[in-house]
Amino acid sequence: MNTPFDELTPEPKKPRRLSGLRASFLTGLVVIAPVGLTLWLIWTVAGWVDGMVLPLIPAGYQPEQYIGINLRGIGVIIFLIFTIVVGWIAKGLIGRSLIGFAESLVNRMPVVRSIYSGAKQIAETVFAQSERSFEKACLVQYPRKDIWAIGFISTEARGEVNLKPQTGSDLLSVFVPTTPNPTSGFLLFFPREDVIELEMSIEDAAKLVISAGLVYPPADKPAKGRTSRGA
Questions:
Q1: How far is CA 94 from CA 10, 86, 98, 116, in A?
Q2: Running DSSP on this structure, what letter comes out for residue 5?
């Protein structure tokens, strides 16, 4: 039996037909966007390097005259070969002597000296391969007790930094990065027993920080050191 209120009852909304297309589009965008951005970045950087390197080559030796086309990326190959040759020479006795002589001249130029020293420090920090790298990822209580943060163990504290706190145990230098930019952060010194070392790699820990906790290591990488502390 129908009542007057039956006419006022709203009909249930039917699922939109475009919702499936919208979900598929977003899924495809998630797949295509990183690939497209990576290819575009490589293409742009290659063109930028070509524009810097190729004009320095005499016209008679331009690669375009030998291969017949202006192929993007030739400048990158030339730059890599040139950089390898320079690095090989710089590691030798003659190369080190020339670099030392050139740096002694630069250090006598007030403005140039400041620019060169800053650029050299940045280059050594970013590109130089040395033993100054993070040892392991860890968990520390920061900024207060019972709040945990991802950190990277760099070295054992030395000198008065390790002696004057008088904590009863050695201190560890721990870099606590910020999210989503892990290149900035805080250098903190923790007693060894307050640092929980993790089994995950430095790369996995960095991904976790950059993604703001969205990207965890695969399930086939068990965190065996979850309850173990630094030895």
A1: 88, 12, 6, 21
A2: G
CA gap 123, 115 in Å, rounded = 12
Three-class SS state of 172: strand
Element containing residue 79 per DSSP (H, E): helix 74-90
Looking only at the bridges linking them, the beta strands covering 196-197 and 185-191 are: unpaired
Residue 39 phi/psi, 5° resolution? -65, -40
Helices 93-106 and 110-127, axial angle in degrees (round to 10): 140
Q: Could you tell me if 151 and 174 are in contact, meaning their C-beta atoms sit under 8 angstroms apart?
A: yes
The 10 Å Cβ neighbour count of residue 203 is 10
Nearest Cα residue to 173 out of 152, 146, 149, 159: 152
pLDDT of residue 186: 94
CATH 2.40.50 fits 136-210, yes or no: no
- Write 188-195 long-range contacts (CB < 8 A, 24+): 188/140, 188/142, 188/151, 189/157, 189/161, 189/165, 190/140, 191/167, 192/229, 192/230, 193/169, 193/229, 193/230, 194/140, 194/141, 195/138, 195/139, 195/140, 195/151, 195/153, 195/229, 195/230
pLDDT (tens digit per residue) in 112-146: 888 888 888 777 766 665 545 688 999 999 999 99
Report pLDDT digits (tens) over 179-190: 988 888 999 999
